[in-house]
Amino acid sequence: MMKKYLIGIDVGGTAIKIGQFDLAGVMINKWDLPTNKTDCGQHILPEISHFLNENINLEEVKGIGFGVPGPVTAGVIKNGVNLGWDTIDVVGEFSKLLTNKDIIVKVSNDANVAAAGETFCGAAQGYQNVCLFTIGTGVGGGIIIMGKLVDGHDGMGGEVGHMLVDQKRRFLCNCGKSGCLETVASATGIINLAKLYRIEDPTSKLNRYDRLSAKMVFDFAKKGDRIALRVVDEATNYLAYACSLVTLVVNPDIFVIGGGVSYAGQFLIDKIESQYYQYVTPFISHAKFALAQLGNEAGMYGAAYQVR
Amino acid sequence: MMKKYLIGIDVGGTAIKIGQFDLAGVMINKWDLPTNKTDCGQHILPEISHFLNENINLEEVKGIGFGVPGPVTAGVIKNGVNLGWDTIDVVGEFSKLLTNKDIIVKVSNDANVAAAGETFCGAAQGYQNVCLFTIGTGVGGGIIIMGKLVDGHDGMGGEVGHMLVDQKRRFLCNCGKSGCLETVASATGIINLAKLYRIEDPTSKLNRYDRLSAKMVFDFAKKGDRIALRVVDEATNYLAYACSLVTLVVNPDIFVIGGGVSYAGQFLIDKIESQYYQYVTPFISHAKFALAQLGNEAGMYGAAYQVR
To answer: Hey, which of B93, B195, B243, B276 has its CA 20 to 30 A from B106?
Structure first.
């Protein structure tokens, strides 16, 4: 039967987002399922398979792509702790559940898959070499080279959040090291810096709140609060530096900035872009910087992109 | 006619190395031509074409690959100053010179091509994701992802020598910035550090020589000279840091270290490898480090690898 659809599945710790797309990447339908993490997450793949069989004519499906939270190599996720998983051969296990054996199944890390989503139908549409920074509680990343997701040898491709950029190593990272980009440029990192610097100026509005958020820091910076501006300048300087390092490895066509912190908008992009050129060689002509466009649907789009 | 051969051509500022290979990458023949840089290097490609026509039956040639000194994108080199070239469409120009229109022509940057050479028939044979550091007068680099050379948007893929790693920015780089990896880890960089530190200890053997070389520094370090060891430890620490940054972008299977400084041998590799793990996340299982094997023939092998 004629293959007309791609399925993109973003498997998160709370919800599983399933998108049905035509072959050009236009979303036809989408569903949310709760993530059943009981029994070490062993029901997750069967429940997805059951759902697809009930809701979609799989004979018309060209491929099913997954994005999963954890490092992926050759279809296998290691340490999928957010799903209750240890090491799971997602491609192998899921293929076994399918009666239609001609369906392509692929899986990649969720941050990489989000980069693929922006490349498929978002801010990086039409580009072949893309780097996405997802700036939320942490800093994730995804790299697309020549139109393909870069998983890397240990599934650590695009793990830009763990680049050592704060040489003073002031803050401990969840990974166990200190000084990672994530400790000074994620929402958490921005709060780290704000708490450090607000003491220096009692007039800063950042002192009025016990619980700071990255959004507050950006909002006060936009209104000219000196300490908030200093925090934003420093965090975005680290991001600009990280972008320069990515450029000198793979020289992408475009950097896409997503995640919750990216709701700070063009102000954030301008801060990163204006500080980027001090770090790259003068031979770099011009790098593009853009805000992500797909929000939390990027994972579904990118999961489908893998099997396009 | 049956296609039996690949041609790999490393176009350097002094000599043009031409290698003839079978399809598996075994070298059948090689030649050296002088590089004719007169008239803005306009004779270089015609002279190569003439030489090939005289010496090889081009009907049996599947492809001709070039490595050239300068940034390459989509077959075009920009600022090929070492050859007297400005911007040249190498693929377009050379294809016009060929009477056999079924020959594939490709071109990439010489450092990227060297990485491809080591992947084809050298230290990284059998790997799909490779990073080469060429440590000589400067620090060059090349990245192979999923078996393909990464040129990047401005041809700056693999330009790892210009990553800012010396936050104190003590030494000026040829690129116009300060603090590049090249300023503290190339042969020049090692001499920079040696001159800086030898003053602190008049008993260091490094004080006995007006003209230092990187080889001297490594030789004295191996014999236990305290200052020489400090220089080697610092230079290799910067290299280890740069390797960690590459890992967190593309997570290669193997790092290959080549160039003149790599004649320091396993001592150099051990120094880099032992300092690498402090910079990567604990999730990285194990990275391979190896000495380059092809010396100055890597360019020919890699040029041919492009058209395999």
So the answer is: B243
Query: What whole-number distance in Å separates Cα of residue A298 and Cα of residue A84?
Result: 23
**A283 reaches B (C-beta below 8 A):** yes
**Interchain pair B245, A146: CB under 8 A:** no
End-to-end Cα spacing for chain A: 17
Taking the model in full, what pTM does it have? 0.94
Distance CA A225, CA A209 (A): 14
**3-state SS, residue A252:** coil
Predicted local confidence at residue A231, as pLDDT? 98
Q: For A32-45, what is the mean pLDDT?
A: 95
Interface contact B245-A250, CB threshold 8 A: no
The predicted complex's ipTM stands at 0.93
Which residue in the block uniquely carries the two structure tokens 């870069």? A150
B284 closest CB neighbour out of A156, A247, A287:
A156
Angle between helices A214-222 and A226-250 (to 10 degrees): 110
CB contact (8 A) between residue A279 and residue B253:
no
Closest partner residue to A154 (CB to CB) among B79, B148, B285 is B285
- Nearest-Cα distance to chain B for A28, in Å, is 32
In angstroms and rounded to an integer, the radius of gyration of the C-alpha atoms of chain B is 20
User: Residue A209: phi, psi to the nearest 5?
Assistant: -125, 135
CB contact under 8 A, A143 and B177: no
Q: Go through the domains of chain A in sequence order and give each one's CATH number.
A: 5-122+297-305 (3.30.420.40), 130-292 (3.30.420.40)
Task: Take residue A283 and report the two structure tokens written for it.
Answer: 């031979």
B-chain CB neighbours of A126 within 8 Å are none
- Average pLDDT of chain B? 95
Q: How confident is the model at residue B104 (pLDDT cuts 50, 70, 90)?
A: very high
